[in-house]
Amino acid sequence: MHVIRLLNEGIELMRSGTITLPRPERELLIRIRTGKYGSLDRLLGLANTLFVELKEAEAKSRLPERVDRSQVSKLVSGTYLKYWNQSSRRD
Known about the structure:
The protein is mainly alpha-helical. The protein has four helices and no strands. The protein has helices spanning 2-16, 26-33, 40-60, 69-90.
């Protein structure tokens, strides 16, 4: 089930640059987790299809090849500082 969720998240990220939470395929994931999706062969077929979709989405993705770690660090630091400043005003 986790692989199916991650594959769907990867496909969405490659296509749109975002990941939707909670997952739109929630019902599918629940059916897989509870054993109601079907046989292992059916599940492996789905996973293989999603792996192909992910490769295709990656090839067409407009996302950069590398992460700008400096920008990510600034974003994370700024988020922490904003939270801490807001939280200290409430006390």
